[in-house]
Every structure is written in C-alpha cells, then in structure tokens.
C-alpha cells in the first residue's frame, strides 16, 4: 500500500486519523562529521570578534542608562519641592483675588495655573523616573526617604 506524502512528510494510516511521520531535512550527525574542528574554531572566533563591539556598545548604553537613572533619582526630592509650591499657590491666588494690588498687576488665575503646573511637573517627573527604571535597579535615594509609620 502506498503512503501519501506532502512536502516530504509521510502520513501513516491510524484507526483514529492521520499522523505525520517527521523526517529531518539534514541529519545533524552528517553535518558534524563534514565540518572540521579547526573550521568550527575559526567560525566561533569570527563570531566572538564580531560580538565584541556589540557588547561594548551595549555596556556603554546600559552604563549611561543606570547613571542617568541614579542622577534623576537623586534630583527627585528637589523636584518634589514643587509640590509644596503647588499647595501654596492657591493661597497666593486668593490673596491676589482679594487684594489685586498685592500681585503687581498679575491676575489671580495666573497663580492657579502656576499651582497646576507645579503639581503636574512634580508628578510627571516622578512618573518619568519610575518609567525609565533599568531592569533590576533599585532607587539609590530610597534610604534617605522617610519610612511609612
């Protein structure tokens, strides 16, 4: 009885259905027997020489990434002071609304916009620093933050 084939795969007839009998295209033992150890050593040497610049570039990029993350983490408390400014600005806006001459001609709503800007920049900076966190990195300034009570 002839077995049906599709692209070199032979089918065997079973009681339940058809089953594919896989045949390797190239035998691994034949390929290993054909190549000499010296050729394999040369091939791995060329791969290593080609991989060195890539590895050096990756190391440089990861170093810059970790350094930038560390500096931005250290600046986070400085930028978080803007949150305090955002909390004080509505009070200044109220004073400018009640007594406009105290604001030197600036309308009160400018102070409200400044409050929104200060809070937005502070929160966006913190989110940005969290977003660019390298894999496996911890915040170097975490030990200086107050613990939750």
Class by alpha and beta content: mainly alpha
Count of helix runs? 3
SSE sequence, one letter per element: EEEHHH
Rg, alpha carbons:
34 Å
Note the beta-strand portion.
Answer: 5-15%
Secondary structure: number of strands: 3
Could you describe the largest sheet, including whether it forms a barrel? 3 strands, antiparallel
Please give the order of strands in the largest beta sheet.
1-2-3
* Amino-to-carboxy terminus distance: 81 Å
Gross geometry: rod-shaped
Could you name the ranges where pLDDT drops below 50 across 5 or more consecutive residues?
Answer: none
Helix content: 55-70%
Average of per-residue pLDDT values: 82
Structure description:
This protein is mainly alpha-helical and 149 residues long. The chain has a 3-stranded antiparallel sheet, with no helix packed on it. The longest helix has 62 residues. The chain is rod-shaped, with a radius of gyration of 34 Å. The model has no long low-confidence stretch (mean pLDDT 82).
Task: Please render the helix and strand layout as text.
Blueprint: E1 5-6, E2 9-13, E3 18-21, H1 28-34, H2 37-98, H3 108-131
Antiparallel strand pairs: 1-2, 2-3
Quickly list its features.
single chain, 149 residues, mainly alpha, three-stranded antiparallel β-sheet, 3 helices, rod-shaped
């Amino acid at each position: 009885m002839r077995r049906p084939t599709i692209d070199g795969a032979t089918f065997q007839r079973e009681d339940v259905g058809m089953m594919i009998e896989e045949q390797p295209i190239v035998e691994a033992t034949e390929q290993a027997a054909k190549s000499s150890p010296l050729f394999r050593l040369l091939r791995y040497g060329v791969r290593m020489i080609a991989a060195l610049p890539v590895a050096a570039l990756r190391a440089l990029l990861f170093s810059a990434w970790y350094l930038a993350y560390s500096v931005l983490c250290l600046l986070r408390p400085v930028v978080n002071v803007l949150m305090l400014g955002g909390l004080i600005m509505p009070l200044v806006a109220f004073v400018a609304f009640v007594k406009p001459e105290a604001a030197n001609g600036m309308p009160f709503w400018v102070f409200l916009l400044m409050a929104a800007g200060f809070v937005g920049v502070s929160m966006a900076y913190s989110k940005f620093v969290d977003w660019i966190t390298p894999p496996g990195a911890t915040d170097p300034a975490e030990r200086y933050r107050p613990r939750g009570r």
